[in-house]
């Protein structure tokens, strides 16, 4: 049978709907990151308190991704996504009208995690329409919805300064979520090839498999690094280089663009050359670049280094999720939730690492050196895992292919 090209296969309206849902959800999920500098003018915070504030949405997203991953398998990704968008309205209304203290803002930040949990529905919705040879590109396009981060970093502080209120940003964010909900409802469709729901016992088996934890570790570094830096860099530029809130967010946007728009490239190149090969190069690059940032060079240099580091992390996100459907194709909804939750935990931990080390040492150098070391540890883990995969599955596909159990002809 002749293979179809990417654009001849799948369902393009659903792919675009998944992208839009992911995009607007990411925009809302990271709203507090760029706004943190302005919010601190109303609620003075220590470096650790700022780190906690921008980290809480990521923690909420990590927890709720497991819930949405479970729902995706049982009621389908489309209905799960619709529920997610409706629930996302709650923290937006709270942030717009009802926040009167820092503690209340912490609650809003945690509840914004439901937007970050969109990962567990958006990616399976797209993935289930495409065959294995197109998984990297399909997941990369849908996952490029993390470009919503760019919208927040570019416009949130400008809107807040224009209206003289950061609260109004939450109110205006209601408009795009409602518009996307309507579009998504009209055009998104569940794949007819959606796997049957699994039992809880079968879900538990995923946690017993070593590869589950390996992919969690990989994504904890790539996605955790991307979303953690996206949330924290505005604070970093404001504190380290004395930039005003808008300029600090603008430079953050530069770095975020790299991580967002190179994710599909990572997926595409992983389809062509193998996900493990791509990850080896990307972890190595990220480790070297983050170590270079630790020297706190001049502003133009640090922006360039962070742009390239975020590009490596963004492409790494695409590479990891080129691998996951190959290994766990029949449990993609659950595994997306599990691996995505691990990535979120990485994004939760990163601001805390930078904030606490800065508060205790007065410098960001130890924090970025720690991040570099973590990336290099992921590189070592990947090298060990690749040797294990090669020894276990080499006979199934020849020297050029590493095939997870149950799959054939899958290039890792």
UniProtKB/TrEMBL annotation:
<dbReference type="InterPro" id="IPR044772">
    <property type="entry name" value="NO3_transporter"/>
</dbReference>
<feature type="transmembrane region" description="Helical">
    <location>
        <begin position="105"/>
        <end position="125"/>
    </location>
</feature>
<dbReference type="GO" id="GO:0015112">
    <property type="term" value="F:nitrate transmembrane transporter activity"/>
</dbReference>
<feature type="transmembrane region" description="Helical">
    <location>
        <begin position="301"/>
        <end position="320"/>
    </location>
</feature>
<dbReference type="GO" id="GO:0042128">
    <property type="term" value="P:nitrate assimilation"/>
</dbReference>
<dbReference type="Pfam" id="PF07690">
    <property type="entry name" value="MFS_1"/>
</dbReference>
<protein>
    <submittedName>
        <fullName>NarK/NasA family nitrate transporter</fullName>
    </submittedName>
</protein>
<feature type="transmembrane region" description="Helical">
    <location>
        <begin position="83"/>
        <end position="99"/>
    </location>
</feature>
<dbReference type="InterPro" id="IPR036259">
    <property type="entry name" value="MFS_trans_sf"/>
</dbReference>
<feature type="transmembrane region" description="Helical">
    <location>
        <begin position="20"/>
        <end position="41"/>
    </location>
</feature>
<feature type="transmembrane region" description="Helical">
    <location>
        <begin position="53"/>
        <end position="71"/>
    </location>
</feature>
<keyword id="KW-0472">Membrane</keyword>
<feature type="transmembrane region" description="Helical">
    <location>
        <begin position="332"/>
        <end position="354"/>
    </location>
</feature>
<feature type="transmembrane region" description="Helical">
    <location>
        <begin position="278"/>
        <end position="295"/>
    </location>
</feature>
<feature type="transmembrane region" description="Helical">
    <location>
        <begin position="137"/>
        <end position="156"/>
    </location>
</feature>
<feature type="domain" description="Major facilitator superfamily (MFS) profile">
    <location>
        <begin position="13"/>
        <end position="390"/>
    </location>
</feature>
<feature type="transmembrane region" description="Helical">
    <location>
        <begin position="366"/>
        <end position="389"/>
    </location>
</feature>
<keyword id="KW-0813">Transport</keyword>
<dbReference type="GO" id="GO:0005886">
    <property type="term" value="C:plasma membrane"/>
</dbReference>
<comment type="similarity">
    <text>Belongs to the major facilitator superfamily. Nitrate/nitrite porter (TC 2.A.1.8) family.</text>
</comment>
<dbReference type="InterPro" id="IPR020846">
    <property type="entry name" value="MFS_dom"/>
</dbReference>
<feature type="transmembrane region" description="Helical">
    <location>
        <begin position="168"/>
        <end position="188"/>
    </location>
</feature>
<dbReference type="InterPro" id="IPR011701">
    <property type="entry name" value="MFS"/>
</dbReference>
<keyword id="KW-0534">Nitrate assimilation</keyword>
<keyword id="KW-0812">Transmembrane</keyword>
<keyword id="KW-1133">Transmembrane helix</keyword>
<feature type="transmembrane region" description="Helical">
    <location>
        <begin position="213"/>
        <end position="236"/>
    </location>
</feature>
